[in-house]
Amino acid sequence: MKSLAKAPKHVVAKYSLWRAQVIEHGLEVVQKIPSYHDELLSGKLKGIRSIRLSDGYRAYYRITKVGLICIIVEEINKHDYKAIERLFGE
Q1: Going by C-beta distance under 8 Å and a sequence separation of 6 or more, which residues neighbour residue 86?
Q2: Which CATH class is domain 2-87?
Q3: Most buried of 4, 37, 66, 84, CB within 10 angstroms?
């Protein structure tokens, strides 16, 4: 993911920790960890979730269900909702 390659090291580390926790404990458990501020977005970004990786950086993901649950991390950026809206073409 290009956006992860551009992110600061501490953001990459927090994303890696989140990913490992999701793999080990499951998404439902990790969504309850307060420090991630996992939330479902609304408006043009309905269906997208975000997690906090630092004060400025967020990871945006969505969950698809095609036979099994798949988490697709779409973008990691400096909390730029306009860029996310452009990514989803709405």
Answers
A1: none
A2: alpha beta
A3: 84
